[in-house]
Amino acid sequence: MTDASRSGGCLCGGVRFELTEVPQDAGYCHCTRCQRRTGTASSAQARIDGRTFRLLQGEDMVTAWRHPAGGFEKCFCRECGAHLFSRNPDDPTQMSVRMSAFDGDPGVRPSFRTFVAYAADWEPVPADGLERFYERKPRY
Ligand SMILES: [Zn+2]
Ligand SMILES: [Zn+2]
Q1: How far does residue 79's CA lie from ligand 1's centre (Å)?
Q2: Measured in angstroms, how far is the CA atom of residue 113 from the centroid of ligand 2?
C-alpha cells in the first residue's frame, strides 16, 4: 500500500488526515440521511477503528453535525462542504471515512449495502451480489 491509500482530505485542501492502518471493511449506505448529505443515491465509506485516525491539519475547519434524532456525527469541511468522516460521539473507536476522501486507492472494496429499504426510487440498488441489509449492519 502507498501512503495515498492511508491519507486524504477535503476539496479545498484545508483539512488533511491520515490513518495508521489501511481500512479493513467498507460498504455503501443507502439511508435517506446519506442521500441528503451527499446529493447521491448512496454513500461509499470505509469503517475504521477511530484510534487509527489522525487529523493532520484543519481541525478548526471540521464541522460535526448530528441529527437531532441521534446517530453518528457527520463531519465535513465548513469551507468547501466536502464530507470526510463520521463518528459515534459515544464511542470514538467507531468511525467511517468517506471513500472519496482518500487521496488514492484505500485498498478495501465495499462488500455490503445498508439501509436498502430506503434506496432512492430513481436509482435501483445494483444486482452486484453484495450482502444487503434492510436497516443498519451491526459494527462488531
Ligand atoms: Zn475544505
Ligand atoms: Zn447512511
Answers
A1: 5
A2: 10
